[in-house]
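User: Can you write out an input/output pair for a complex, sequences first and structure second?

Assistant: Here is one pair. Inputs:
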Amino acid sequence: MEDKQIVDLYWARSERAISETAHKYGRYCYSIAYNILLNAEDADESVNDTYMDAWNAMPPHRPSILSTFLGKITRQLSIDRWRTKTAEKRGGGEITLALEELEDCVASNQSVEQIIELRELTQAINRFLQTLPDTERDIFVSRYWFLASVKEIAGSFAIGESKTKTTLFRTRKKLQTYLQKEGYINE
Amino acid sequence: MNNQILLDAIGGIDDRFISSAQQKLMKYQHCEEIQKRPRRSLKRSMIVLVAAIMMLMGSFTVAMAASPEFREAVFSFFGIEQPEVVPEHETDHVLTPDDMVVDDTKTNIGGVIEGIYLHTPIASYAEAGVFLICTDEEQMKQGSHYDAYREENGELITQETHHFNKTLEVNGFTFQTDFEWTDVNGRTIITYMEPSAQYFIDDFAGSPEKTLVLFYCWTQNDEEGYRFTNYPAFLNLKTGAVTDVLAGTGAENIEGILKAATSKDQTKMLFITEEQTVYYIDLISKKLYNVTGLSGESITDCTLVNDSLVCWRNEDEASESGSFGKYRAWSIDLSTFEKKEMMIPSDRETLFLGFNTPFATGNMYAGSCFAVQVDSARNTYIVDLENGTTTEIPDFEWPGSFPYIGGVPSPDGRKLLIFGEKTGNVFDYIGVLDFDRKVCIQFSRENNNAVNEHSAYWFDNDKIVVRTDSSEISTDYYVYELLREGTRIPTTQVKLTISWCFAADSKTASEEDARYLAGIIDNGNWITEETPACDMDYKIILNGSMYMYHGDCGTFWDTENGRYLSVTEEEKENIQEILCSYFPQ
């Protein structure tokens, strides 16, 4: 079924919207959730919560790209769930590694230069991503949005792991410099 | 701000960035039912594929794949009597650099592929023709040091590494550099890079005397805030001398350079900016040209083809650089800078391989001289962008039973690596499309999933590597070299043109003459030790590969590969008779 038709089902409050979403994007959402949570049961719960959030969001939303709309919900729900688990000392996985790597960009002992709305920071990151070559940007998004492993990225982009790590590292350094220059973090 | 906030902020990035990465990540290609291109059923049997077959099975056990009928047919085609046997590697301890070994087993698959197997410590990389072994205790972190080894006749040879630590001035900016490098057959390989480096050196970036470095420069303007550019410069690693390639061209102040690439001889450069404007620089005359401006329209991507540029533009939004789609193409002559439309069949999907393709390897890849087309029946064609000719690959269909990536060009752009998704731990399918020979060498594979193959990529211009993690104690690499001399070309697809130094035009040889000359060239005893000291009076293009020939002494000269072939007296007479029939003297 086309995305537009699925969105129409949500707007029509038809429960079939959920089954069609699950049929078309269930695996996609599950993959995102599992990458973060590394637990099948938790991932299933995140995916189910995704359908619920989508149900509550449409209407009024009418996403242009349904997959990324759902993916964003799944990702955030899974990260929130992971944080809860981490508090219970059940963390780990790619998200832990990704967070360690992102320390490169925002050293934890740095003071906040200004209070930043999350949305504003996201827009800054969007502007930064726009400055990257396609491949470099795709690798960055694969790692820090999809939380894919370095091995997985190397395999998908047909490059070695060394190059993958080098590329990620220099992108992080560029992001750090960009955020410093834009005043989001102290130099 | 902390990293958690950053992680949350990344979660809200533009959908287009997410979609773009999603299309590249193999795991997600299969998640949706959406298919960018229609899947078509196989029209012909796989049996008649122009293929070499290699099978990896299990954790280093005997390999066999597909049906017996298929195996027999493919082995018969190439005379392969024994399938590949991947050697068993038994070890009970964590490998150290001293334990590294090239397996005794060296496999020749049908005279087409030669495979070697290496067992190395976990903390290792195989890239750009060398094996890098981490020497730090805290291994594989950014800023780790590596020892480099190259494989030669089954031995691992230690590479000498050099330290580079200088302050460099580039375009008014000062850069403190600190890295280590090694020279592998005249090519620079970085073995250590300081963690805070504000510059980048790619795997295929040139020789130690002329390595392309991208320096990170930030500029500020009132309207757009800080802008970043990758400023290209050549660096002589032996002397520390910097050659500012943009200086004096007018390109010094162009902001937002995303990517730069040079021709193989480093006399031409292409770069693209954030605004998707493509520029060309003649590095000899130091002249800058705005390719987008010369084209009079936006460009999806472009490639250097000898003395011209071939540019293309997608006809629909779904067609991106590095993917099959509908494109309109044109060439720009680099002496007159005239634009000329290219006539290529429009009823097929086309894969152009430009310098800005997402899968390009290294900075010395300025695009490929070839494009690939696939028709509705998945018949596959190679388009020679130099002359616009299109050649169908006989008895081959573009594999469509899996969500394939568009293809990864070799560092020299003369081959294309294609591979499918992984089933379990193993790549189901790997193939190499050889543009010069107009063949596809296919690796049809099965495996019992004991070995995790997690990446396949170009190791060198003629080698691909499959990296595996068989255990927590070692990393194994399968390195496959595509043999040039051993490759058999079906006689049905021999295409040969002849030029004579005293005539302006070239002639296409008859099928009979082409087969005769191809037989000598393909089966001859080529010598690489020394070069012939004689004039060459004929130029012969055989399936895209150029050979010079000297009629008086009967010598072929393969300039691209630096080798020559002396023919017998009888062959010399026959060749001369053929050549004179096209160019009477």
